[in-house]
Q: What sequence folds into this?
């Protein structure tokens, strides 16, 4: 009898009844739609300002749109403008962005307007950061503030999860990315009930955020690279080389990050740190060209439309300059995230590999380069795999990415991350 008992499988977690999940639908739908509208609103406003700053304004002044002089002027002015927001606006645009990741803290409402202004100015001015971290932080704070007042019986812990999921769904235009991120974050926590029951509300928010963004803005991650058919032995070798190489380059930036951050911290005041960062970014843009500006998603599409339009040296130079710009922008105080610039860096490395060895398929080079870079910069395994696969829109590349992720992950796991503790030491 004792042996029979020992052989019985452990009991499975009970499934939540429908009546426990139904009350979560309306809050989840609402949060998903609102988070998407916040993201689309900030992005649209930033794009309109970017169009003026880098189009009619330099034309009216008789200066080249992407001349070295104009890039210095705009990036320095962006540093001054964001520095003023951080200095004078209530809440100082939130905590040091070098200490924040996708898992955002709940910020008080008075911080949110300044953070929105800071990220909008940053996106328009050209620093190499994306909108993800500050937009998630704004949506988390907004969801908590409104949720506690409008639906006070809902557990407070639910609102940040819904806001993060809704924002990630809106950013990527699909709820799959949010489901992967939430699943990864839940892996280290004790769960009550089945995993899918815990994902029900966040997935609802992510789906509503994604469909709202799709209907309003019609985003796409597909770079339109030449289609990739069946994998060959050469593709496996290329994937096993490119992904770890990209991860190693990304880890160089990770190890340099706290030292660059410490240099800017010595300036102590945002009106010194951010303008100084703008000047350094201007110098980097003068070296790398205008494609190394901004968050990088539009610019990587321009690279992908003509994989043979640049030499291997030019692709490599753009990747290194963009990586340096990412480190500087994230260190000096600009509010932004690191995923979208990392996509540009990884894609440039992959296209560099294709230029060096034409037998390397562009889709394989881009996907595995992005995978390795994202693993190093974000340490988010599922998001790295999903983003790399979404860029090439080819199911056949998934197996290669899974294989390439193994040596790349061995290089980055257990090592410092590109995120700091409040005292400036790196998080492991």
A:
């Amino acid at each position: 009898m004792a042996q029979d008992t020992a052989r019985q499988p452990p009991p499975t977690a009970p499934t939540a009844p429908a009546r426990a999940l139904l009350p979560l639908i309306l809050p989840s739908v609402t949060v998903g739609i609102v988070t998407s509208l916040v993201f689309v609103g900030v992005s649209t406003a930033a794009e309109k300002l970017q169009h003026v700053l880098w189009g009619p304004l330099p034309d009216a002044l008789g200066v080249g749109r992407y001349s070295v002089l104009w890039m210095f002027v705009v990036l320095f002015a962006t540093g001054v403008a964001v520095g003023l927001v951080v200095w004078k606006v209530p809440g100082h645009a939130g905590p040091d962005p070098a200490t924040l990741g996708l898992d955002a803290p709940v910020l008080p409402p008075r911080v949110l307007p300044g953070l929105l202004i800071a990220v909008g100015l940053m996106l328009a001015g050209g620093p190499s950061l994306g909108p993800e971290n500050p937009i998630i932080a704004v949506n988390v704070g907004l969801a908590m503030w409104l949720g506690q007042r409008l639906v006070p019986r809902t557990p407070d812990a639910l609102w940040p999860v819904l806001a993060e999921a809704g924002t990630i769904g809106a950013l990527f235009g699909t709820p799959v990315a949010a489901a992967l991120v939430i699943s990864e974050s839940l892996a280290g926590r004790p769960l009550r009930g089945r995993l899918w029951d815990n994902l029900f509300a966040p997935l609802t928010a992510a789906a509503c955020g994604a469909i709202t963004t799709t209907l309003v803005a019609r985003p796409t991650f597909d770079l339109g690279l030449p289609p990739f058919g069946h994998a060959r032995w050469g593709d496996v070798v290329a994937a096993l080389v490119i992904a770890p190489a990209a991860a190693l380059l990304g880890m160089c930036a990770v190890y340099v990050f706290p030292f660059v951050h410490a240099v800017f911290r010595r300036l102590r005041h945002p009106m010194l740190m951010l303008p100084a960062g703008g000047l350094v970014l201007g110098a980097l843009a003068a070296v790398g060209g205008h494609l190394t500006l901004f968050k990088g998603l539009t610019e990587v599409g321009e690279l992908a439309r003509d994989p043979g339009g640049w030499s291997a040296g030019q692709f490599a130079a753009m990747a290194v300059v963009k990586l340096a710009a990412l480190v500087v922008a994230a260190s000096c105080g600009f509010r932004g995230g690191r995923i979208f610039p990392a996509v540009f860096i990884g894609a440039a490395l992959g296209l560099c590999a294709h230029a060096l060895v034409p037998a390397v398929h562009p889709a394989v080079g881009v996907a595995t380069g992005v995978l390795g870079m994202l693993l190093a910069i974000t340490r988010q395994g599922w998001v790295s795999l999903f983003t790399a696969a979404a860029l090439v829109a080819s199911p056949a590349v998934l197996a290669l990415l899974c294989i390439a992720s193994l040596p790349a992950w061995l290089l980055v796991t257990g090592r410092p991350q590109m995120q700091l503790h409040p005292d400036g030491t790196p998080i492991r």
User: Anything to note?
Assistant: The chain has a mean pLDDT of 86. The chain is about 70% helix and 0% strand. Residues 180 and 382 are 6 Å apart (CA to CA).
